[in-house]
């Protein structure tokens, strides 16, 4: 029997509420299986850690994360630790990403159930069938290049940042995108997004993506999109970008957020940040550390009311099983259970809706239903 | 009687066809007025200029543009001068922008007529009432900072670009946004977009925008949006950003293209690129040089067929009258005429539709109708 160690970081605001449901789901699949066991342990991170230790990422939390097989996170931040606070939670997140080497951010955008079409800001015929996975490089580019603030010599009236990529950084994120494309049957197309008509870093990006895929994954289909044009397609015809959208850190920040509103509620979507390419769920599976978290924030306005949507976090737990532990079967089972609670009765489902989708089902009740189905 | 010199750059593909209609519209308002006269002269620019002179921006064209009161452009480029061509049209455009100092790109995104709601990829209730003007800094930032290509020493495996802004560059574009906000009654809100939680250039941007508006335009309302969050709103709730969206070059490239698909056809939208803040159309009006062009490309697939939508170019001509010549009245008259050809008969209009909107009205016929209405 395989034993996995999962670190849980509930965080702030609605984080603890949604994480509690995902934890129950993980405990359930663990109890149901005789092949593997999940050992879950909770640690402080974010605003709550600032309150109790003075820093968002206490050494004990970092150490536990470094030793874990995977990390499940809720959300961090809140008005108490806002722009004017001395110590803020966000640097803790950036430090955790960088220290764990989580260079691959994976964000699917799709409708878990066609019954969600009515919530999309896009016309149903445009939203129906959208199925994109944004693979964003997460610890390079203009986020981590050298910068100079205003007020610093020599030219105090000027500020700058460096958008920088190396061949090796682009190769490794391209391999992650390729593995994800290959995990689907038939393999997904890869749409690489850059601004190669202007930027040198984008020309390197385009060249390395092209060569890496040609040499190592010649069976995959690749096209290149300029970032301005990709931003248009995500609104006008997102299905054109179905498959894997492979892009650098800043463009990925913008495009993944843009595509995440297509399903109608941020509460529905999961994410993964990985330290390596996920290997195929097979005999030679190699575990990859990663943080799994819903894409929504800590939503302080509804925290403590028991009404937050736990689905993004529960689907993050499914990604954790798939990508970090190689457990495809329970991952699929969770995803099917989520579809079932969302589908309308005429499609064999329960049609449950939390407040973000205009319903009145609570966080716990939704979690209960998913546990029951499993 | 005031005389203005307008340089016309028809360009490539459908450029000459759509420009021909805008020229007729300008000639019509000129003939109808006893206050001003427009002198129009055509020059080669883009692919056609490469064919006849070997370069996209011949010295004679540049000279005419420098001496003109304003420039009306069609569109440039095409497969004949594509990625693999030795000389390409796009550098001619970037050079023209830079040489003329056109630092302010103005792109309205709105529905010229509610009858266009059915063409929007957004749900009608979300698209209805969208009225944004993107004010994009056009000759700074990562487009014009120092860069290093891959393969160049010292570190050949790395490429980088510099995103750089000075206080003075941000001040002047902020003033343009403010003038545009003030031209409306009541004045428009300003939404400044940056990534100040990560980038030093964005922190400078946010500080300078805040101070410039506070000191010089205290009557205007300002908020700050992160670029990822703005990209979400433009899809989920674009009216939240109604008013002026003020942003730097790269973010403006992405967000203006993203918002331009809301009206349902790129053929409908105009743009202006200015060398200064437009002054109020009053006695002390100061002319500002500028290039006015539709946002669409040269569409080689439909060139020469007489079916392209001339509305984006005709509305660009209206912007030319307003911003470069201070002629608000004929500008409004053109915009009203455009609304009338688009409005459905039940709303007192003609409901004319070119092919991009699924209709079969030709370029010339649409131009005729607008001239007739004027
Ligand atoms: C908080 C911020 C620095 C972060 C980012 O831009 O990476 C966030 O927007 C995200 O996408 O996780
Ligand atoms: C052609 C390209 C360099 C240009 C830009 O990015 O500025 C275009 O996308 C635009 O927006 O006018």
Automatic annotation (TrEMBL), chains A, B:
It catalyses: (2R,3S)-3-isopropylmalate + NAD(+) = 4-methyl-2-oxopentanoate + CO2 + NADH. InterPro entries: IsoCit/isopropylmalate_DH_CS (IPR019818), IsoPropMal-DH-like_dom (IPR024084), Isopropylmalate_DH (IPR004429). Its cofactor is Mn(2+); Mg(2+). Keywords: Amino-acid biosynthesis, Branched-chain amino acid biosynthesis, Leucine biosynthesis, Magnesium, Manganese, Metal-binding, NAD, Oxidoreductase. Binds 1 Mg(2+) or Mn(2+) ion per subunit. Its EC number is 1.1.1.85. Pfam families: Iso_dh. GO terms for biological process: L-leucine biosynthetic process. One of its GO terms (molecular function) is 3-isopropylmalate dehydrogenase activity. The keyword Signal does not apply. Residues 5-370 form the Isopropylmalate dehydrogenase-like domain. Pathway: Amino-acid biosynthesis; L-leucine biosynthesis; L-leucine from 3-methyl-2-oxobutanoate: step 3/4. Coiled coil: none annotated. SUPFAM superfamilies: Isocitrate/Isopropylmalate dehydrogenase-like (SSF53659). One of its GO terms (cellular component) is cytosol. Catalyzes the oxidation of 3-carboxy-2-hydroxy-4-methylpentanoate (3-isopropylmalate) to 3-carboxy-4-methyl-2-oxopentanoate. The product decarboxylates to 4-methyl-2 oxopentanoate. Belongs to the isocitrate and isopropylmalate dehydrogenases family. Homodimer. This is 3-isopropylmalate dehydrogenase. It comes from Laccaria bicolor (strain S238N-H82 / ATCC MYA-4686) (Bicoloured deceiver).
């Amino acid at each position: 029997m395989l034993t996995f160690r999962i670190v849980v970081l509930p965080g702030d605001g609605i984080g603890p509420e949604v994480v509690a449901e995902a934890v129950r789901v993980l405990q359930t699949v663990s109890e149901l299986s005789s092949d593997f066991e999940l050992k879950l342990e909770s640690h402080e991170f974010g605003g709550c850690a600032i309150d109790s230790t003075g820093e968002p990422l206490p050494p004990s939390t970092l150490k536990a994360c470094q030793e874990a097989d995977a990390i499940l996170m809720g959300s961090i931040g809140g008005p108490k630790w806002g722009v004017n606070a001395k110590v803020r939670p966000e640097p803790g997140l950036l430090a955790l990403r960088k220290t764990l080497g989580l260079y691959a951010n994976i964000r699917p955008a799709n409708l878990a159930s066609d019954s969600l079409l009515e919530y999309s800001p896009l016309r149903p015929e445009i939203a129906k069938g959208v199925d994109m996975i944004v693979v964003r490089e997460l610890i390079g580019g203009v986020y981590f290049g050298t910068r100079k603030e205003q007020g610093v010599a020599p030219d105090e009236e000027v500020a700058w940042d460096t958008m920088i990529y190396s061949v090796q950084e682009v190769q490794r994120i391209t391999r992650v995108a390729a593995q994800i494309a290959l995990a689907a049957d038939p393999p997904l197309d890869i749409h690489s997004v850059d601004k190669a008509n202007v930027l040198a870093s984008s020309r390197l990006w385009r060249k390395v993506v092209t060569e890496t895929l040609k040499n190592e994954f010649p069976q995959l289909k690749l096209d290149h999109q300029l970032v301005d044009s990709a931003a248009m397609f995500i609104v006008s015809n997102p299905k054109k970008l179905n498959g894997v959208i492979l892009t650098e850190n800043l463009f990925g920040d913008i495009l993944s957020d843009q595509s995440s509103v297509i399903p109608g509620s941020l509460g529905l979507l999961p994410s993964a940040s990985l330290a390596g390419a996920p290997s195929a769920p097979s005999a030679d599976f190699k575990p990859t550390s990663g943080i799994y978290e819903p894409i929504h924030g800590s939503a302080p306005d509804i925290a403590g009311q028991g009404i937050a949507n736990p689905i993004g976090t529960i689907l993050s737990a499914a990604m954790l099983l798939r990508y970090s532990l190689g457990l495809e079967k329970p991952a699929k089972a969770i995803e099917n259970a989520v579809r079932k609670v969302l589908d309308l009765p005429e499609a064999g489902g329960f049609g449950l809706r939390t407040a973000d989708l205009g319903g009145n089902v609570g966080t716990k009740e939704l979690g209960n239903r998913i546990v029951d189905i499993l």
